[in-house]
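debug: dumping io for the single-chain case to check the tokenizer round-trip. Nothing else runs in this session.
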Amino acid sequence: MPRPSDRAWGLVVALGLLAGPACSSRVERQVVDVGRHRVRFVCPAGWEHLDHGRQQLFRRGESQLSLTDLGPATPAAMVEELAAAERLWRDGRRRDAFERVRELRAPALRFAPSRQRADFWKPWTDVTYVPEAADSAAIGPAFAALIEGTKVFAEVTPEHMVEYVVILASDGRGREIAHRERRTIHGAPWIEVETWDRVSHLGRSRVAFVVDRGYLLALAIDWGRFERTGPVFEAVLASLEVTADPPR
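debug: decoded output
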């Protein structure tokens, strides 16, 4: 768990950040769609909020936090992604459909044995190895094979879910988990993780995530001095409310 003194100080600073003027001239709870998620939050005083759809950025000087849709967390959500890609293809948007399949990622895929991953992708790559020359009559069955193939993946363990989020949040840099804890924020079960450099045990950072209807939503410190970003991270996290409404 994060150190009690850190948490207490973070809460004090967070209250101050949320009480002051936010991104505009007054404090207000904003509603944004972050990929598959609709969230409400309060932007901390003096920080700029940039809406990039699947990723929301919070910046001030040399510091940045991000709130990101990290994609499917479960095999069922993988099926949703593949079904959405298939609809794009049937609507005549072949390139967009193929790109959506290419970008598919999930913890089940990440931690599956290499042979299992190869078997999962084989029906698709056999048909789309040269995308422009892919036989339309074979693409539908290839989608069906991918969707059927999601059934072979094992349920992701909590440890692998945490590791997966840390890897994505740190862009693969060598981070080690120092502390982690479960937190309920506005009724949602978040997991907060503190990391540091694997070798030096310096460079503290934080990431928190929640699984919302099968998809991962993560708040992370991207860069900046922890003394500045830590309290802001706490402020944004404490204000985050994942709503039941679907994105627009």
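debug: round-trip ok. The chain has two domains: 4-72+157-242, 75-152.
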